[in-house]
Amino acid sequence: MEHSVSSTRSAPVPAARPRLRPKPRDVLQLLKPITWFPPMWAFMCGAVSSGAGLDGRWWFVAGGVLLAGPLVCGTSQAVNDWFDRHVDAINEPDRPIPSGRIPGRWGLYIAIIASLVSAAVGWLLGPIVFVAALIGLAFAWAYSAPPFRFKANGMLGPLVCGLTYEGLSWFTGAAVMLGAMPSVEVVIILFMYSLGAHGIMVLNDFKAVEGDRQTGLTSLPVVMGVEVAARFACITMASAQIVVIALLALWGYGLSALIVTGVLAAQIAAMPRLIGDPAKYAPWYNGVGVTLYVLGMLASALGLGGYI
C-alpha cells in the first residue's frame, strides 16, 4: 500500500520584479524641496529691491518663484545626484538613485525633462528672464557634469553655486518686476551677496569629506583641512556683508546698513562654535547663521526698493 507523504518544502517565492519607474515621492525627494528656499528667497529679494509694485504682475511673480525654486533649483539637484551617484553610494547610500528607488537612467531623464520645462517657463516670463534661466541651467549642468564638473574644484564650485542660487535668482526677481535690467546698485549688492554665499556653500561640504577624499573631489575641507575651511567660510560670509554695509551707508540707505550690521554681529557671535567643530555644527550654523545672512539680504532689498 502506498502512503502519500506531504512535502515540507515551501513553494518558491517569486523574485520581486525590478522597479521600472520611480514613485512620485522619490522624484520629489530627488528634487530636494528643502534646497528651494534660498533661490526663492533671493528671487523675492530681487522683486523687493526693484521697487516696483505688484499690480498686474502677480502671475509673473508666481512664475518666477516657480522657476527659481522647484524648476531650476530642482533641476540642479537632479543633475547633481545623477552625476554624483557613485559618491552618494559611499556618503549617503539611502538617496533615491544609489538606493535604486530612482531606477535605471530615470535620474538623467528627470533632469532633462526638468531642464526643458524650466526653459519653457523662462520663455513665458520674457526675454531677460529666459536668458537668465538658460544661464542658470547651463551652470546647473556644468557644476556636476563632465567635462566641466565645477564642483570638483573646491574654490570654483561654491562660487558657481553662490552666483546662481543667490545672484541669478535675485537678478531674475528684479527683472521680472521691472521688465528690464535692474539698477547698477541692485546688481552690485546681489553680486556681493553671491560672493558671500560662497562661504555658505562650503558649509555643505563638511558632511561629505570622506567620500570626497575617496573619489578625488577637491572640496575645501579636503584641501585646506576642516578647521581652516570653516574659518575661510566665515571670513568669506562676513567680508561680503561688510562691503554691503559700507555701500548701503554710502548710498544713503542708513537703516538697511544698520540692520545688516546687526545681523552680521549675531553671525560673528555664532561663528566660534562652528569653527570649533565644523562637522558637528555646520548644520546648526546653516539654521542660525544662514538665516541671519538672508535676513540681511531682505533688509538690503527693502532699502534699495525704497521701503525703508
TrEMBL record:
List residues traversing the bilayer: 108-141, 168-193, 287-307
Q: Which membrane topology term applies here?
A: Multi-pass membrane protein
Q: What is its main location?
A: membrane
Q: Which UniProt keywords apply?
A: Cell membrane, Chlorophyll biosynthesis, Membrane, Transmembrane, Transmembrane helix
What GO biological process, any one, is recorded here? chlorophyll biosynthetic process
Q: Does the keyword Transmembrane helix apply?
A: yes
Q: Name one GO molecular function term.
A: transferase activity, transferring alkyl or aryl (other than methyl) groups
Q: Name one Pfam family in it.
A: UbiA
Query: Entry's CDD domains?
Result: PT_UbiA_chlorophyll
Q: Where in the cell is it found?
A: Membrane
Query: Which cellular component terms (GO) are annotated to the entry?
Result: membrane
Q: What is this protein called?
A: Chlorophyll synthase
Organism field = Erythrobacter sanguineus
Please name the taxonomic classification of the source.
Bacteria, Pseudomonadati, Pseudomonadota, Alphaproteobacteria, Sphingomonadales
